[in-house]
Amino acid sequence: MRCVVRSWRMLFKLGLTVIVLVAVYMYYAIDQPESSNTEEESNPHLPQESKDVQTHERAENKPEIDKASDWAGHIHIAVVVCGDRAEETLVMFKSTVLFTVTPLMFHIFTEPHLRKHFQEQLAFWPEKYRQKIDYQLYNITFPEQEGVKAEDWRKLFKPCACQRLFIPDMLRDIDSVLYVDTDILFLSPLEQIWSLFSRFNSTQLAAVSIEHEDKAIGWYNRFARHPFYGEVGVNSGVMLMNLTRLRASTWLQSVQNYYKEYRLKITWGDQDLINIYFHYHPDQLYVFSCELNYRPDHCMYMSVCKPAEKLGAVILHGCRRVWFEDKQPAFKAVYKTFKEHYLGGSLRYELLESLKRNLQSAPQSSCGKVPNLFTRSIENYLDSREQEKT
Ligand SMILES: *[C@@H]1O[C@H](CO)[C@@H](O)[C@H](O)[C@H]1NC(C)=O
Ligand SMILES: *[C@@H]1O[C@H](CO)[C@@H](O)[C@H](O)[C@H]1NC(C)=O
Ligand SMILES: *[C@@H]1O[C@H](CO)[C@@H](O)[C@H](O)[C@H]1NC(C)=O
């Protein structure tokens, strides 16, 4: 969602910061899924008897204390959904269950009128996939604080964008989440990014990727009127958050203070506040590589995310509405494929094949020309799974 708009008068520059080591390490360090069953079979690790249609939403008055223990061992996804973003969010959810073995917990912060939509759509999933997930819906709420009204937070950038700053305080029983914008698609198992938590040193409490690979076209370094992280700032569309550590830090107090101090200088809402925070606390941030938050910016002029050329885009970020508009036909083709994919259909013969077909028939674009950019990750996943079987 948050993707800084770049000036067209960019300079092509060859000196690129390539984080190859991280990428190569990650490639070999992927935790292979423990289950080798194909998507056509049922998963022996999951209970088979509960065939009754049940809602997976937890009763809201359930004691908080149960949650943490129930949901330990899950991968927790947090997402904030307002306006017309529900559809792409459901496609994002679908992409999470295709490749991931670990049970998933979705924390959905949304407007009251969208609650029913999520309940109905998720209940409609085939049983095998519904069993993999649990979810909880939350209202959008902001703290009332001296000098900053809840209404001010709502008005900053987009109606509910800043909600995520307060997730540590709202999910008090949850240790860690992967926060994603609604316009994200996972092209590989979530275990891969989740495993980065274990690489945090003792001071790191969150992980993101940087905003640009090329300083010459960076937005923050050229235009920002507030402090930002590092040389080019960070993109917060995919963010690992260790909530336990965030709660123990000055995070909540600090972002509210930065808001008061910089409110008139902020362009991109919550992402700017996150940049300001990590400007002052650089030791608390783990920076991951660009293929884990792959955006049109990485290929629209030239290919600047080198790890993705080798590994493929691992997590795709369709910022600036490229899922729906015609600016980036290759990104649009990927979204269309995931949207139309039927849960339970073969990943190799249906998902991957239609992806290739849709990419081929999309109008030419600079991003579409990077070989295997959008398919490599899925192919690698399918190949590794097949190797396991033999
Ligand atoms: C969420 O907000 C709606 C409308 O404001 C309200 O009716 C509902 O009770 C709230 N739910 C929770 C769990 O706070
Ligand atoms: C988050 O930090 C806490 C406190 O340091 C630690 O106990 C926990 O294991 C961390 N969570 C993850 C997923 O690494
Ligand atoms: C953790 O890593 C960050 C980023 O590399 C660094 O700034 C910080 O000093 C490290 N913390 C410790 C305790 O080593």
Automatic annotation (TrEMBL):
Membrane topology: Single-pass type II membrane protein
Ranges in coiled-coil conformation: none
Keyword Membrane on entry: yes
EC category: transferase
Listed transmembrane segments: 12-30
Keyword Secreted recorded: no
Region of interest called Disordered, as start-end residue ranges on this chain: 35-64
Basic and acidic residues bias (residue ranges): 48-64
Keywords, sorted A to Z: Glycoprotein, Glycosyltransferase, Membrane, Signal-anchor, Transferase, Transmembrane, Transmembrane helix
EC number, UniProt record: 2.4.2.42
Family as reported in the entry's similarity comment: Belongs to the glycosyltransferase 8 family.
Name of protein: UDP-D-xylose:beta-D-glucoside alpha-1,3-D-xylosyltransferase
The species this protein was found in: Mya arenaria
